[in-house]
Amino acid sequence: MNKLGHALKHRLNEDKAVKYPDFEDMWTRIEQAGCNSSGLRGSSAPAGSRRTRNWSKIAAVASLSVLVAAVPVYAAVHYNWGNLLSSNEGIQTALDQNLGQQLGQSITRDGVTLTLRTAIVDENRTVILYSLDVGAHTDTDFWSVKGMTLQGAKERSKEGEYNYEQWDEENKRYNGYFESDWVPGQDTEQVTLAADAVKAVSVQDLELPLDVESMKMQSFPVGREGMQKIEIQPFAQSKDKLLLSSAVTFDDPVNKEGIFPQLVAYNGTTRVTGLSGGTFGEPGDHGEYKMKQYFKTGDITAGQTTFKLEYTKQERNIAGPWSFELKLSKKQMESGTHIQALQLPLETGDTDNTIEKLSVTPTQVRLSIRTEGKSFRRQLPYKKYSLEVSGKTLEGRYFGYSKEDSGLLNLRFERPAGLVIDKSTPITFVGKYKVTIHTEDKAPTLLTNISTEKQTLIREVGGYPVNWTYYMQGKDLYVETGSEDPHFGGINQTHLGENYKNLPGKPVTSNFSGDGNNKAIDVYKDFTGTEASIYMYFYTTDDPDKETRVQLQP
Amino acid sequence: MESNRELFETYNKDVYRTCYYMVHDAADAEDLCQEIFITVFRSNWQSVEYLKSWMMKITVNTCLNHLKRRRSLQQKVAANLHFFQGKSAVDTVEGLVEQKETSQEWAIHLSRLPVKIRAVLTLRYLHDFSLNEVSDALSIPLGTTKSRLHKGLKLMKNVLLETGIPEQEWKGEHYEQAGACTQASIK
Predict the structure, then answer these.
(1) pLDDT mean over A375-380
(2) Using CA atoms, how far apart are residues A329 and A188, in angstroms rounded to an integer?
(3) Given CB atoms, is B141 within the 8 Å cutoff of chain A?
């Protein structure tokens, strides 16, 4: 450990450097939250009382708005939500059964009215449907509600909240959808739904004289919406796939929300459709907004295809507080809900992945799977999943790890209309497209005579022939790996051995597992020398036809 | 260890101190510390093998989430400054005085580093985690841990030089020569 390290260790561990809070007081608050000294677990009580300080600002904001408390009302009001709910079939199913709670509260500001229509609350989530009437507006403006959040009486709002809007041509207004993982602790609970602002944006663009034949980094000044410049580097990722790796530098690296820059290509007036797998917004070392976009080489003709930087510009900003006081209830949903604890391996012999909970509500089926093992291994080995319920297939939606329990993965399945699910209904989990992680190959790959010329060698990885192509570009060494065999999943990342103390290569590509793309590019900045021993962190193999079936009920 | 109380007594200082160095705000650190223990008590902690590593993993990740939320709240407050103008003027003066009084505090130095780097330094130097343990706690590859640690020490050095902290506070003759930063910190 070096001297600064020693000094840090010493200073940070100095007891007198930190003034501790009153731990007895804290213990009392923890006990009030339902956790006592006997070590009882599994309480669902809220997270304890807190000092009032944190809420003073929020309370000040809330008090500025007119608050109208609504009591739960259930009524058969049929409102056409168009295809707003197309990916949330379960919500439509609940609405059709009149399980929605009517809200009917409005706030109008600067001629724009936000109206809360219906709430759907069950054991898994809370959904609020709303409409936004913006009055007279230009066709090029897109309106949306920003920073929508739900605040329970005692709990802080949960993450995983999102909302979106859709233009309703028939009624000349926007329909909106808000979803949160928050659910009432009791049958009925008082909550605040608040939004920061209602904004209108328009889409703008700026033509860029990009030369796609040059594989060099090209820089263009932008000077709009806080964007200083964009740097773009084209890569021929394969003979028919072009990668544009780019980074936008902002005046203020922190303030780049809501601009959504992206590169678009046009042949004449026809917009070129990019290939899937692009990534946007990865932060660079100096706060840049990095993007990786893929195009079909055949769609791009040097000198003919034009490139533009497309971005959004804020046209209107009606600041809040847009704040509603609501009383939400999950009582209506209770009769159609059942939760079952399980202990089933994902497949025979699998000790890392166990299905732990099945929870069925009138809108959704949710499956909780515990994934053990090292952090990078903690991903589901099957990339496609579905449920078979009474002969009907419900496609799964991955919903990430539980916030309370970082080893628990939740999969969601929307409940279609007319499908009866009770405790005796047969339910089977089906996983398809297996991806296996391999860490055992620790042998180096030796790259020799490194120069600006592209050289390729073939080295077997896990029995698959893998092409290793390497070359210098400027001061940097590029290493591209990939195999013609689709069963090889790809190498996640490489590192330089020996002289470089496991220096990791910086991935230029986004290496997702199970996406059918096994090409990867790593760059080693400021490389000197003509030889390099390259090692792999891990690689994956794909088995698209492998399937697992687990009977969940009865 | 069997009871929640015992666990609380054993680790309350470690958890609080980590929160404090991560978020650099005593009140927030107190809230986070409480939140972390409630989370831990509701889980099956008795079956966890390496309890301290596990607790610190939860602690650092809770702090990272909090900082992420706070950044967005700060943006919200900045966008609605007219609601807070009276109060924020007072805050600024208080803040300046406080900053002057405690300018020697290492929490302030740490708070000037990017949060991801702060997390690595805190685990490595406050809790003496090995590089592998840091990687595991933050779910990042070993190479990333090493480069963040290296970058963190480099940034920290600049912060200390900028702040004008006397060199004897962090340099000592009995330590090895400079220039071997990365290698030396690999455990």
Answers:
(1) 60
(2) 4
(3) yes
CATH of residue A178's domain is 2.60.40.1630
Residues A322 and A186 in one domain: yes
Q: Give all strands of the β-sheet with A126-133 in edge-to-edge order.
A: A101-109, A112-121, A126-133, A173-180, A162-168
Contact B17 A36 (CB under 8 A): no
Query: Are the C-beta atoms of A99 and A415 separated by less than 8 Å?
Result: no
Average pLDDT over every residue of A143-161: 74
Number of compact structural domains in chain A: 4
Using the Cβ of A525 and the Cβ atoms of chain B, whether some distance falls under 8 Å is answered with no
- Point out the least confidently predicted range of A378-382, B109-113, B123-127: A378-382
Looking at domain B4-74+98-163, its CATH architecture is Orthogonal Bundle (1.10)
Does residue A19 belong to the interface with chain B, where contact is any CB pair within 8 Å?
Answer: yes
Regarding whether A504 and A533 lie in a shared domain, the answer is yes
Q: The tokens 């007119």 sit on which residue?
A: A66
Residue A362, domain member (yes or no): yes
Task: Tell me the shortest Cα–Cα distance from A189 to chain B, in angstroms.
Answer: 21
Residue B176 and residue A2 in contact, taking contact as beta carbons nearer than 8 Å: yes
pLDDT digits (tens, 9 = 90+) for A445-488: 889 999 999 999 998 888 899 999 999 988 889 999 988 888 88
Helix H or strand E segment including B91: helix B85-101
Highest mean pLDDT among A326-330, A470-474, B111-115: A470-474
Which two three-digit tokens encode residue A8?
């840090």
Query: Cis peptide leading into A362, omega within 30 of 0?
Result: no
Domain, as residue range, for A118: 89-201+318-329
SS3 A319: strand
